[in-house]
Amino acid sequence: RTWGSVSALNVDIDGVHIWVADRCGSNSCAESNVDPIVKMDPEGNVVQSFGAGMITWPHGMDVDSDGNVWVVDARSPNQRELDRTPNAPMKGHQVVKFSPDGDVLLVLGTPGERGDPPTHFSEPNDVVIGPDGSIYVGDGHNGQGMTTGQAIAAGIEAGSTGRIMKFSADGTFIKEWGQIGTLHGEFRTPHALAFDSEGRLFVADRGNHRIEIFDQDGNYLDSRYSYGRISGIFITGDNMLYAIDSESSGTSHPAWSNGVRIGPLNEDRITGFIPPFDSDSRPYQGAAGEGIAVDADGNVYAAEGPNSLSWAGGAFTKYAVGQ
User: Fold this and answer.
1) H-helix or E-strand containing 153?
2) What pLDDT, in 10s, does the model give residues 289-304?
3) In this structure, what are the phi and psi dihedrals at residue 108, rounded to the nearest 5 degrees?
4) 0.90 exceeded by the pTM?
């Protein structure tokens, strides 16, 4: 089938296969009956798929130590989709835990409803499982151009936010921290999450053009400013940070280029860069992608949305080690 937009991908526990969640051949699964969650071998061959009718807008993904696949469903069907397809499943604003075979093991959030914890999300972006099995969710996709005052003045829809939400391994809500803003501990779209080997939580704060680092209780530790307007992050076992920037070129972050920036985890310094590839749909900036993952051999995978998707040379690209 035709690929759709994608920002959700991760590496399987075998270090070889890649999990991807695409938006069902377009930029939404609201009107589709295809499987959005796909497992691929290193050559891009599909070996497994599931999730038809269960996800509206896949956005972020994690694979835990047991091989379970966690997928963030960032929004519910919009009115245009419901007008065309009145019986579209009312999903979205959820985090779903799947077994490696596609069985649903846990669901967080209330389907089709945005709001506040402990029972609701508001456009969640990403999910990551902590060292002790706790669940962390970056919540609030639409705040990247706002400060708190601007959000209030604009009359933004209730539930708009920028926060991290923490749950126990069984899904019990523990705490949240953050709001829309520019100070440390505030966010303008916490778009991607990753843990390092020391148990620190790295948050790609896209609208603020930075990465914020916290302990597992939400205490602010440090920031990184050299990685652009970050949509996705991945931390490798040799303490290297990979950050993909899909939005800098043009007006979003002037004088910065899209691409994948690579640097040592404990320094705010770039030591490698993968430039964007040419794209007819994005001629002024090229295409870089929103999702990033690195397999056990060091190959880098970049996944793009919201443009159409294809394997290697389109919008889902594999970069070989050293290239």
Assistant:
1) helix 148-153
2) 889 999 999 999 998 7
3) -110, 145
4) yes
